[in-house]
Amino acid sequence: MIAYMLEALVQYFVSRGILRNFSVVLTFLVFLAALLFVVIGVIPVVSTQISSFLDDLPKIVSQGRDLLLSLQLEYPSLLNAEQVNNLIASVASEFTSVGQYVLSFSLASIPFLIMVIIYFLLVPLLVFFFLKDKYLLLDWLDSLLPREKQVLQTVWKDVDQQIGNYIRGKFYEIVIVGTTTFAAFVFLGLSYATLLGVLVGMSVVVPYIGAAVVTIPVLIAAYLEFGFSSDFAWVIGVYAFIQALDGNVLVPVLFSDVVNLHPIAIIVAILIFGGLWGFWGVFFAIPLATLVKSLLAAWPLD
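Below the sequence we write its predicted structure tokens.
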């Protein structure tokens, strides 16, 4: 996926008259710089804000209890004190279990950290060799396939272009939406701007569903910061505006010639491939749906 994304930059350098090997080196240096920025500049801030967010969650329980009690006094026929107390106790128990899970994860994270370090060493090496030996690897793969492969060649050409453009377009969308959200929330004075910017940016990976899910932490963070006030309304309004721009302006610009799939086909693909392969099935649902579409279009009917 990373090699697909970086291939566009390699081709850009090649179009400027730079030899491919030098273009690969320049592209790889850009990739390493971006990786270091994420590891050193983004991840520590996000980790700190996650801890702070979890620490602030009990405030929601307290404020929610006060709100429910006021509603119970105003509408005694709909709620009684016992129901309010049971609901608050249930929510507090869920928050406590989340905190305990995070703590246990941090205490048992040494094997996970070792795995992360290994991947941080292996993935850049794989990316470099995928870029450097792209045509060598493709020729080797072609030598393993049957000589008569007209359908496969047609599908490969279509899917290769579609998936490459989709991954690069999705990366641009993540960066644009995440950066815009971060800048807007910083301007509005939201304490969790970095964390929410990352969440909103990553939510575009899963069409429709991602935006709906990430709305919950945005609402919680805005309520923790401002309560039910005009500032809370501004945060929600700006967030809704960003989502509208993403869906109605950014996505058509980035993907107008990439993925020509009906929304029903996209949702069905997310459900099917997500059910088969979990997160990665959801992540690659649209490319896999594109593959199925290309196979159906190229398959001989007689």
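Residues 153 and 298 are 10 Å apart (CA to CA).
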